[in-house]
Write a structure and sequence with these properties.
The complex is a heterodimer of chains A (257) and B (187). With 257 residues, chain A is α+β, with helices and mostly antiparallel strands. Chain A has seven helices and twelve strands. Chain B has two domains: 150 residues, Alpha-Beta Plaits, CATH 3.30.70; 26 residues, no CATH class.
């Protein structure tokens, strides 16, 4: 165990975790955009900035998500320096993505209602946090999308900006996107994964073998469900699965009748 | 062995009181006035067909396919159930497809936690029966069922079931001999 001081209170925390994790365990609020528990720390968005000082660390502002806890570390999450820096960070993010509702709501909670930056510049919803790219590559194992370009031209895109042949249509990128830049659109038996102005991939959905409702893509079945035993890969919608569960409920060990 | 909540279809009258109790037990405010059609998210669903009516909920499989396919460790084997660590969910829906009972869903967080401010990331969460582990009085559905159709099954109940079935088999042998038993088993 390691002892740290968080906003004046002493906490015993396991060795090896980050300041962000320690703060969340202690129910201390630190905002994040590029952090996800399923993925490792990345340190792209910087809004988790805190003030820290320790035996081996000179007092300064650091990203809580990449700072490991160490004995004697003193962390302040709401010092004037932190608040001022965080406000500028949110302003910069808003300059790039002024139309993102979730980003605006988050900025508002930390006292940022408008931005001085980004007038006349290119706008989109993407804050370049990299969650979609990392989820796709590290967790789904697909890497259908990745970053291309550098500096202001850095962008999340498919191979050559064309419809992706690698995408399996799971929609995890859309689910983890903090700003709504990537969306999963289901309609009329088709699924599209869309990045604001670019269609990442388009699929015809497999239909439920019992009721013909659209369920999932063929590529998803092929790649994500390999771990399952044979015979468990029938495509059924939730309602039809439940109907089957109910139909077999009578044969479950029944000692009450 | 994992514990599970299961209903006796013979006693279920399809009133859906269990659904309401479940939705309430898992809603932020635990008050009916706060529920809306969108935020009514019971973790068990009453299925009614011409032949049967019964609530259907997570079987807490010991060899859980949902946990096997989960790429992020959101679904893990707990002390006596399959547990969900919602903050790890990336919304890939592998669990939803893998579950052959149709009792796990991936749902938007804004419906699940209207009380919680958005802190970035994770818009979705895997949702299923958690045996009301955080509720002192045990599963809410069991408590409210007017016909006492819902029960918790643990290893002791399982052992008793096996014993009763063996006794039944033995009784059949005594009553009707092997032929009668076999014809009964065929039916």
């Amino acid at each position: 165990m390691t002892t740290i001081t968080l906003n004046g209170q002493t906490h015993e925390v396991p060795q090896g975790i980050t300041v962000l994790e320690a703060a969340r365990r202690a129910a201390v609020d630190i905002p994040t955009l590029c952090h996800h528990e399923a993925l490792g720390s990345y340190g792209a968005c910087r809004v988790c900035v805190v003030e820290a000082e320790g035996p081996a660390l000179r007092r300064g502002l650091v990203a809580a998500c990449t700072l490991p806890v160490s004995d004697g570390l003193v962390v302040i999450t709401e010092s004037p320096d932190v608040q001022r820096t965080r406000k500028i960070l949110f302003e910069l993010l808003l300059g790039r993505s002024p139309d993102s509702e979730s980003l605006r709501a988050m900025a508002k909670r930390y006292g940022v209602h408008s931005t001085r930056f980004g007038a006349g510049a290119e706008h989109d919803l993407c804050v370049r946090c990299g969650l979609c790219v990392r989820t796709c590559k590290e967790k789904i194992g697909t890497a259908a999308i990745s970053f291309a370009g550098r500096g202001q031209g850095r962008n999340v895109t498919t191979e050559f900006g064309a419809l992706s042949e690698l995408c399996i249509g799971c929609g995890s990128c859309a689910a983890v996107c903090p700003t709504g830049m990537i969306r999963l659109e289901d309609g009329a038996g088709e699924r599209a994964i869309v990045r604001q102005d670019l269609t990442i991939a388009r699929f015809a959905l497999l239909t439920c073998t019992s009721c013909s409702a659209p369920v999932i893509t063929q590529k998803f079945m092929d790649q994500r469900l390999q771990a399952l035993p044979e015979g468990q890969s029938e495509v059924l919608c939730l309602d039809c699965k439940r109907q089957r569960t109910a139909a077999t409920a009578g044969s479950f060990p029944n000692i009450w009748s | 062995m994992n514990k599970l909540v299961i209903a006796d279809p013979g006693k279920c009258i399809g009133c859906r009181t269990c659904e309401l109790a479940c939705a309430l037990a898992h809603s932020p405010a635990d008050a009916i006035a706060t529920l809306s059609p969108a935020s009514f998210i019971p973790r068990l669903k009453v299925v009614k067909t011409a032949k049967i009516s019964t609530p259907v909920q997570c079987r807490q499989c010991d060899d859980a396919p949902c946990a096997a396919v989960c790429p992020t460790g959101t679904l893990v084997k707990g002390a006596n159930s399959v547990e969900v660590i919602p903050s790890r969910c990336i919304g890939c829906k592998s669990c939803m497809i893998a579950c052959s009972f149709g009792v796990i869903e991936v749902l938007p967080c804004e419906l699940l936690h209207s009380d919680r401010p958005y802190t970035g990331t994770t818009h979705v969460e895997a949702v299923k029966c958690d045996l009301c582990e955080s509720r002192g009085a045990g599963p809410a559905c069991i408590e409210v069922c007017p016909t006492k159709a819902i029960h918790i099954v643990d290893s002791a109940v399982m052992a008793m079931t096996a014993l009763k079935r063996r006794e039944h088999s033995a009784a059949m042998l005594v009553i009707g001999g092997t032929d009668a038993y076999l014809s009964h088993a065929d039916n």
